[in-house]
Fold these 2 entries.
Entry 1:
Amino acid sequence: MCGRYAITLPPEAVRSYFAYSDTPNFPPRFNIAPTQPIPVLVADRASGGMARRFRLMRWGFLPGFVKDPKQFPLLINARAEAIANKASFRPALMCRRCIVIADGFYEWRKEGGERSSVKRPYLIRPISREPMGFAGLYETWSDPTGGEIDTACIVTTRANDLVGLLHDRMPAILDPERFSAWLDVEAVEAAKAVALLKPAPEDALELIEVGPAVNHYVNDEPSVQAPVAAPIRSLMRETLV
């Protein structure tokens, strides 16, 4: 599950990491929530190659067969193990793969048992402080009047042991060497693309407990990422008491 994330690094650093030529005016976002515009990377073959292009899409995937979005569940995530067999995602897996641009995501740890309402939020980010590319799928949905909206979702995989301290799912974070393969829907068939989706190495990430301000999506400023404890890089569950 990934229900909230961030992209806060300078545009130049993000552009260099993902190797696109666009120069968008996308401000830092510290608390991105579903239904909001999100930055994604897509492949553009119009020029005869496979240039990478920056685009904004709504976070909340709408399959082409949907008639009324109000009567359809909000699809912000897609399980990597199921996308090849789900009618909602199969066409996009074959033809419309994207990379969601991020540099951190949030997860909450329940305390006091399954019925407890107490949750402690954590920021999960690369130790290197580099950006991250989440595997994504997108669809351009058309309404009955001909209006169009680009929509996207984040593909998730099982959590690695570190993130597993908080939740059993995490975004499928692509190694930069696999960006081109995930985006290339013509040369890389669906089954091979799915094989790229694996949990990130534990030693690449850190968990940072943050304050409750991140619980409310209206709070979108640097303070939501202020740590309230030292980063966790150990797999010892005792570190989360």
Note: The two ends are 22 Å apart (CA to CA).
Entry 2:
Amino acid sequence: MEEQKTRWYRRLAGLLVARLPEARLDDVADPRARRGRRWKNLGALLGAVVAGICAGAKSLAQFEKMTAEMGRPMRRPLGILRRIPDTTLRDLLCIMDPNELRGALHSQVRAAHRRKALEPNQLPFGVLVLDGKNTAISGCDDFYAQRQSQHEGEQFTSLLRTVTCTLVSAAAKPCIDAIPIPASTNEMGHFATALREVVRAYAPLGLFRLVSYDAGACSLENANVVRGLQLHYLFGLKGTQPSLLVEAKRLLESRPTTEADAVTEDVVGANIVTRRAYITEEMADFGGWGHLRTVVRIESETRARDGKLVAHDNRYFLSSLQRVALADAQWLRLVRWHWGVENNCHNTFDTVFCEDDKPWIKDSPQGPLAVLLLRRIAYNLLALFRSVTQRSEERRRLPWADLLRGVAQVLVAVTEAHLADLRPRNTAAALA
């Protein structure tokens, strides 16, 4: 039992020592004035935040306590030589340039790509899903945070909005970018800009061939943008495109379950969920969509163990990808992974890291945005370890809470023996 614990501590310590530098936080431009810097190394400060998030810190106060309690063996390789006051960190985060931190996130993803940790899983090409995320805060600058309508007697709030970009085709479902939405526009109005930014960041790598978004972005204009970037699209189809939806229903709604092109059945809690895919090419070029090739209807049926119907739903999707590019079962998998950005990223951010409830900083939009971006780096660090580095299926199903608890224990309890022969981080990056 003790030997197992030692191996586990060693793996987690090695994760922080070997993978944290891949974000190249030492290369992030320092926004602070040169005079009066008590904490000289910015990269070590930012790396400490990522380590704190990985250890489950939910606030600046918890982060400060973590740095105070950290054991000596982990201080040197992480460059955290002493307690970091929460006020020091808050002042820094509130002036950090979000684009500099996005660059660090890009560096981390490129490093994962180089070691082949982002290879497509059960699909022949990479798939990127984009989706908006909002976090309510009390501060507003009308640039990073958009003020909300305020009624008399109600507390003022604003929304910090970003577009999450998730590579759902990779086993770890990493977040490869988080793009701020300016206060002057909205999620759909920022679609083309966000897509161009993430394509520009990763264009030489060929990480993805298809881009997916929900029905709110389903428009001919956005489809033209995707195809103009030499990519394919998969858009949710709802009433915002009435002509397309009516025709899709005419062709696919009446098909019986026996004619489904692909079927999956999953046990979810006390229920059994059956999903059926119905696929057609008959809408190619329909309604002026010259690049439209395939339309898919997904029927979802949830039944209790006794056969009683609990829920029934139909959703429609359209794509520029030719049907023959994927097997029928892969089309069903592709549509199911369309929700990977919600199920894997947003759900983890909110339930595991408590992003919406505890953004660390609420009264200065730039501060929580900086934490949000560092949280994406922490999420990727742990998700890649959990889904790729870990080899057994049991380890890959390890609950997030247990993984964060393990990192917290390592920061405090790891010994020099656990760190023996681990590749050290450059000690020049330590906090002076």
Note: The CA atoms of residues 31 and 147 lie 26 Å apart.
